[in-house]
Amino acid sequence: MTISRPPVGVVLGSALTPEQIPGAGELAEQLGFAAAWVSEDYFFTGGIASAGTILARTNEIDVGLGIVSAVTRHPALLAMEVATLARMHPGRVTAAVGLGLPRWIAQMGLTPESSLAAVRAGVENLRRLLRGEEVTTTKGPFSYDRIKLTHPLPDAPPPVWMGVSGPQMVRLAGEVADGIVVSVMAGVAYVRWARERLAEGADRTSRDPAEIGMNVLTFMSVDEDPARARAAVRHRLAYYLAGRPDSPVTRAYGITEELTAMAAGGPDEVERRMPEQWVDDLAVAGDPAECARKITRLLDAGADTVSLFPCPVERAQDIIRITGRDVLPLIPASYGRKPTGPAGGPAPAPRHH
């Protein structure tokens, strides 16, 4: 980045329509957000098309592509797309690879034998190709026969991050990735837990865990009426919690058993019964000052960037405006663990072979 911005991004895509994404990206840049992350949740909006459009319509803001599934397209094709974007828009692109929601992957008949092996192969080969290496291997779900990019970035490859949740994936990221993107419900306790797992993975390859970035996605609603903001987030949280009542996030907060009982009645029952403490723990909601405090707590816990998923999505542009006007000024641009690089994270990690 060439201007100073607080380490706060915005998540675009999925619930937004394709027509809304370019304008939202432009608005985020104008208002001082550090990054725009474009999600690729199947079968909503395409991440590569969204990232390319935002990059073309803006000048400064970093753009993160993710999470892109390691099994839905050949990593060589992903490398070609990422390299093209990164050469067109130097220093502004980050790609994040993960498995994707298992239900969506199963719908496409792409469930791998080993999720861990599939993601490892995807990340490692994507990084090699972006550096200009020739890849020949049959490890993972795809084969490579002397594949080499014509237009790589050997001197400044874009960072490759991982979308992670469970302990094995977080440790793997500590071994092979430049950073991690974590769940929209990752509160302070989970962020600290994930930092510990990252350090364990980094130790396996003698990496400095401080050089591994963390972008925390979080549901966010800001309003001068804190009750209205909390109600908007509560509705969205209930939908996600009901869909996955047993997860690394719920286990980090010790709520799995209670939530599982609620989830039997569906999202409406979860929304009706969930304690207010869950909203405090799992989202950013309230008036501008309260939202700023919650964002800084996530940064204090170990996040390098906090990227906000506006709730309700129908008010996304309003929430982006209010956040830029009333929340970002309360968070110093120098705040955080280290200077930010592409997509709000640290500079790329040293190359590992």
Automatic annotation (TrEMBL):
Gene Ontology molecular function: oxidoreductase activity, acting on paired donors, with incorporation or reduction of molecular oxygen
SUPFAM superfamilies: Bacterial luciferase-like (SSF51679)
Taxonomic superkingdom: Bacteria
Protein's UniProt keywords contain Electron transport: no
Keyword field: Oxidoreductase
UniProt-listed Pfam families: Bac_luciferase (PF00296)
Annotated segments matching region Disordered: 333-353
InterPro entries, A to Z: F420-G6PD/mer, Luciferase-like_dom, Luciferase-like_sf
Domain Luciferase-like residues, every copy: 18-304
PANTHER family: 5,10-METHYLENETETRAHYDROMETHANOPTERIN REDUCTASE, PTHR43244
The protein's name in its UniProt record: Luciferase
